[in-house]
Amino acid sequence: MVSRHHVGRAWRLLAILILGFASGLPLALTGQAMQAWLTVDGVDLATIGFFGLVGIPYTFKFLWAPLMDRFELPWLGRRRGWLALTQFALAGLLWWMATLSPSATPQLFALAAVLVAFLSASQDVVVDAYRTDLLPEEERGLGASVHVFAYRLAMILSGGIALIWAGQWHSWPRVYGVMATILLVCGVLSLVLLPRVASASKPLDSDPRRELLGFAAMIAGVVVGYALARQALVLAGLNPNDANKWIQLLFVLVEIAAALPLAYWLAKRTGFETLNRSLTSYFAQNGAAAFLLLIILYKLGDAFAGSLTTPFLIKGMGFLQEEVGIANKVIGIWLTILGAFVGGLIMTRLSLYRALLVFGVLQLVSNFGFYVLALLGKGAWGAVQVPAFDWGFVSLHTPAALDWLLLTVIAGENITGGMGTVAFVALLMALCNQRFSATHYALLSAFAAVGRIYVSPLSGVLSESIGWPAFFLFSLVIAAPGVFMVWWMRHALAALGRPPVPVGADD
């Protein structure tokens, strides 16, 4: 007879499975899948690079996370209300994106993508909090594994199978409509199936009205700083719509450089206590700035080379969307999971410092594979035939050829990337668990996304200016400072000890 305890555990793990899937689905829809849509719609490489900035909300989610922790939506209970709201809103926004054309209405399309990224980052905040609140300590390891599996499964769907569907249906809007329907179903399941969690036993010790005022002032600072910087460049005689992509990149960098300090200054002046305390306490730690720099640099070369992988393979090398979907997004993600497991096993015998150093070097070397592919081109090593299949939800009507060099490069990049991610997340866990609060983890994970988001505009302009082979050689140069930082900080890293290693953790 099944006990109530086992039924409760199964219910909790089912909830984690649903939420892990819902959390992983939107990421590619504002990343690699969106890049494929932009590419086949005829958008130029530099503009595709600028579209990488739609992921900016992922780097700032710690700013509004305290508000979602403090305030509860009525009737739906703690966490569950925010989960359902973000999932229904994501479904609506994806339906809207499906009605837009990237080439005909690029600004409107970019706005929709930014809003999708904002809601996706917000959903991630609540999913992480819900998982922590729901699972008892003895179930957290199993719950984390279920979450990672569901998250990666969703990435295979939205980042790999979506490319196969788009190639077969000849319609990216239809693909995004299907993804919107899936998220709508996730929202319904969140309302119906998710167990409730208890409300916070005591409120945070700062004034909620001051928090809201501080958050509003921070947003106002972003808008005002952006507008002032843009106007200053215009008065200097520059045109934001100049055909020269380097001028467009200058506008982006100056606008960001002006908006962020003004936003922080206004937040501090108006009493956004959660943000102020978080930043003050973090930078009071020994070596805080150096660790922050390491976090930004460690995956920078990997992010730089991978920022335009989909346009490179489709537009630069001439691979079909179905080929890229199978090789890079389906096989590639499973290889990332394999790399994470291998990295986790190796880290049982290596210190954190040695793992970061070895895996960092392997990440750097793997970028050389893309240089070889760009130099030799499609078909240099022949191809392997993939037989036709029909799995119901996805099918391949005729046998397809998969390029051996493409598969080799994808295998090397994803396996080493998975290994590097395991060591990197272990570093974040060590910092968070031994020195910083949970709020700092949100801060550190946000800075970890900086490379993935902010190198994209530079990647687009640079690849268009110097060509693909030189671009991937440059990615090796970009990766070197992260490896050097690991060596330079070897004594500080050794002092962190050997924390538990998460296998297959989120990028």
UniProtKB/TrEMBL annotation:
Topology in membrane: Multi-pass membrane protein
Localization per Swiss-Prot or TrEMBL: Membrane
GO cellular component terms attached to this protein's record: membrane
Record keywords, A-Z: Membrane, Transmembrane, Transmembrane helix, Transport
UniProt xrefs under Gene3D superfamilies: MFS general substrate transporter like domains
Entry protein name: Beta-lactamase induction signal transducer AmpG
Superkingdom of this protein's organism: Bacteria
Pfam families: MFS_1 (PF07690)
Principal subcellular localisation of the protein: membrane
Keyword check for Transmembrane: yes
TM stretches of this protein: 43-60, 81-98, 104-127, 148-169, 175-194, 215-234, 246-267, 279-298, 326-348, 355-384, 404-431, 438-455, 467-488
InterPro entries xref list: AmpG_permease/AT-1, MFS, MFS_trans_sf
Species of the source: Oryzomicrobium terrae
One example GO MF annotation: transmembrane transporter activity
